[in-house]
Amino acid sequence: MQKSPKIEVISDLISNCTNCSLHKTRNYTVPGSGNSKAEIFLIGEAPGANEDIEGIPFIGRAGKVLDELLNHINLSRNDIFITNMIKCRPPKNRDPFKEEIFECSQFIDMQIQYINPKVIITLGKFAFQKFFPDKTMSESRGFPHQWKHLTVFPMYHPAAALYNPNLKTKMFHDFEQIHQILYKLVKSQKNHQIKLL
């Protein structure tokens, strides 16, 4: 299998992308940020107004919720890699169109291939549907799912807590499972290596 380009190269490809009409209205592309060797890979939906100005994901109100969730389990943005399904802001923060997601999917695929995380956390339905288009968030949220050789863990988007504060308790509970999921994955890999010896 061919190795994906380095994160910096992928970011350059994204910044020069004109595959869909969103490039006409963006200020900056938002390729993603964090640890390029991270075990945890978070995928949101799309950049908002703040992200479009700064070129950094999750720096608005939803980003503050995400930071709170990460802090709750003693993680920071330096421990993870975080990006969005699409790398340019949709006008007026509308939902991304299918064709926009399709055109941007190559970049997500390259980022996942290069970083090769242990766990992919999908934040919201658009990110989850990339991996499981026939499943619903309501049925799947809070449970790890196997996708190829990776574990996908779907959660509510942090922005949901801004409109429904009651969801934050569920988000804290979901985030509390991350370390346990990683521990089980590492343990199973070690057991597999022992069997191969």
One letter per element, helices H and strands E, the order comes to: HEEHHEHEHHEEHHH
Overall shape:
globular
Order the strands across the largest sheet as they lie in space: 1-3-2-4-6-5
Distance between the termini: 25 Å
Task: Give the number of domains.
Answer: 1
Helix content: 40-55%
Reported by name, the CATH topology is Uracil-DNA Glycosylase, subunit E
* Level-2 CATH architecture: 3-Layer(aba) Sandwich
Instruction: Give the total of beta strands.
Output: 6
Mean pLDDT: 92
Count helical runs. 9
Strand count, sense and barrel status of the largest sheet are: 6 strands, mixed
- Looking at how many chains there are and whether they match, the oligomeric state comes to single chain
The value of Rg in angstroms is 16 Å
CATH superfamily: Uracil-DNA glycosylase-like domain
Q: Uncertain segments of ≥5 residues (pLDDT<50)?
A: 193-197
The CATH class label is: Alpha Beta
Structural class: alpha/beta
Classify the beta-strand content into a percent band. 5-15%
Polypeptide structure, described:
The chain has 197 residues and is α/β, with parallel strands linked by helices. It has a single domain, classed as Uracil-DNA Glycosylase, subunit E (3-Layer(aba) Sandwich). Helix content is 45%, strand content 13%. It contains nine helices and six strands. The protein has helices at 7-15, 49-54, 61-72, 98-115, 125-131, 137-140, 160-163, 167-176, 178-196, and strands spanning 33-34, 40-44, 80-84, 119-123, 145-147, 150-155. It has a six-stranded mixed sheet, sandwiched between helices. Helix 1 (7-15) runs antiparallel to helix 4. It is globular, with a radius of gyration of 16 Å.
